[in-house]
Amino acid sequence: MKRNSKLMWLVRAKIRTMQYSYATEKTYVYWIKYFIHFHKLRHPKDMSSEEVNQFLTHLAVTKNVAPATQNQALCALVFLYKQVLEQPLGENSINAVRARTHRNLPVVLSLTEVKRLLGVMNGLPKLIAQVVYGTGLRKSEVHRLRVKDIDFDRSQITVKRGKGNKDRPLPLPEACRDELQKQLEFVKQLHLKDRRENINGVELPYALERKEPNAGKTFAWQWVFPSLRISTDPRTFIIRRHHCHPSVFAKQVKKAVLKAGINKKVTAHAFRHSFATHLLESGADIRTVQELLGHTDVRTTQIYTHVLNRNSSGTLSPLDKL
């Protein structure tokens, strides 16, 4: 048991050294712990590809997990063996039963549905929805926006350290410029309050935390969408102000969907899907949309071509000919 406890400490340390997100840390730790308990608390160093195959097969056959979930578990175990234990699993050694693959098309809102949805939303949730639909930001990216990332003079929002640790510039939607300026004024007042009460500075990227530890107390580094409550950092246990939790926005979207009477399985991510699809419908080049979304491979972006609001073949249904 002590060996496993030490192992989990090493896993967390390695993840933080490689500057993975806290969400990735939680996910990897969860699957590694699950793997260890599945094999009756045996240490992973005493196991190999055979035990990994057994675990992944269990997930697919007994638990009937989605293919993406099984792949997530595999990624966690590959990380464990390669980065932490330094005994990589052989590429051809994973022969587990795979969960059946099914490629779901993204749920996309029509322009009318977007208007209806935004029409029943208000306050901060509405502003976040406008920013996501207007820029195509991921949920994690919009919540991690800093004051310095918004440039009103150049009408630009810069995503810092997005997925794949890449930066990318995005056009600032004029429709939410005024509300964003009001939001930053609110953030400024909240920041001044924190300084008067000597609250610890906000979380900083790993390197900057060491080089400029006081940067987190400057206005430029404050969250655009901060939490109204002070809480404890789950990694460092420092009491500070974090950005608002993504679940808050997700719950507001769910309520708005019911209120607007939209009969689709709409999540917060649907605004990003709709952004991409509506751009392609308006004639935008797929490479441009790929860059705006931050996709490494254009094939990821091409999924939106399957949900475009047009009949690419130009054929009529036989029913419409009657």
Per-chain topology:
Layout: H1 2-17, H2 22-38, H3 49-61, H4 67-84, H5 111-120, H6 123-135, H7 139-143, E1 150-151, E2 156-159, E3 168-171, H8 177-196, H9 206-211, E4 226-232, E5 239-243, H10 246-260, H11 270-281, H12 286-293, H13 298-301
Antiparallel strand pairs: 1-2, 2-3, 4-5
> Structural class of the helix and strand makeup?
mainly alpha
Helix content: 40-55%
Number of helical segments with 4 or more residues: 13
**Could you give the order of the helices and strands?**
HHHHHHHEEEHHEEHHHH
Mean model confidence by pLDDT: 90
Low-confidence stretches: none
What is the CATH homology-level superfamily of the largest domain? Intergrase catalytic core
CATH class division of the largest domain: Mainly Alpha
Radius of gyration (Å):
23 Å
Task: Determine the N-to-C terminus distance.
Answer: 73 Å
Number of structural domains: 2
Strand line-up of the largest beta sheet: 1-2-3
Give the tally of β-strands: 5
CATH architectural category of the largest domain = Orthogonal Bundle
Entry summary:
The protein is mostly helical.
Task: Describe, in plain words, how this protein is organized in 3D.
The protein is mainly alpha-helical and 322 residues long. The protein has 2 domains: 2-84, Tyrosine recombinase, N-terminal domain (DNA polymerase, domain 1); 111-305, hpI Integrase, Chain A (Orthogonal Bundle). It is built from 13 helices and 5 strands. It has helices spanning 2-17, 22-38, 49-61, 67-84, 111-120, 123-135, 139-143, 177-196, 206-211, 246-260, 270-281, 286-293, 298-301; strands spanning 150-151, 156-159, 168-171, 226-232, 239-243. The strands form 2 sheets. It has a 3-stranded antiparallel β-sheet, with no helix packed on it. α5 (111-120) packs across α10. The protein starts with a helix and ends in a 21-residue tail after the last helix.
